[in-house]
């Protein structure tokens, strides 16, 4: 049970980190001050991710902490793959949509 919980925590941390990265890049490009936008996002995302990994490492779930940390990292990387796949599909749809004109002969 603790293994599934730690994997889900890693999945959530990765979802917040990489989802936040995608959101930052998509919104930061249009921002008036993109450097501040990206730097603030980086600090928030890194702070959340490192805090989450630290809490997993120091937790008392009855298992060796390095194994739980490795499992949390696996969940984090799984989230990276999922976010990358989802955002790639959304990007392709956004690129193709404007080219298809409803007024084309």
From TrEMBL:
Q: Which InterPro entries does this one have? A: AtpR-like
- Transmembrane spans: 6-23, 35-54, 66-83
List the Pfam families hit by this protein, alphabetically: AtpR
What UniProt keywords apply to this chain's record, in alphabetical order? Membrane, Transmembrane, Transmembrane helix
Q: Which NCBIfam families match?
A: F1F0_chp_2 (TIGR03165)
The identity of this protein, by name, is F1/F0 ATPase, subunit 2
- The species this protein was found in: Paraglaciecola arctica BSs20135
């Amino acid at each position: 049970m603790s293994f599934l919980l730690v994997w889900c925590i890693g999945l959530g941390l990765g979802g917040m980190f990489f989802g936040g990265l995608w959101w930052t890049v998509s919104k930061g490009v249009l921002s008036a001050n993109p450097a501040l936008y990206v730097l603030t996002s980086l600090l928030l995302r890194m702070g959340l991710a490192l805090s989450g990994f630290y809490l997993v490492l120091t937790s008392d779930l009855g298992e060796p902490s390095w194994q739980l940390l490795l499992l949390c990292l696996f969940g984090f990387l799984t989230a990276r793959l999922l976010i990358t796949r989802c955002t790639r599909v959304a990007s392709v749809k956004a690129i193709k949509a404007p080219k298809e004109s409803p007024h084309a002969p």
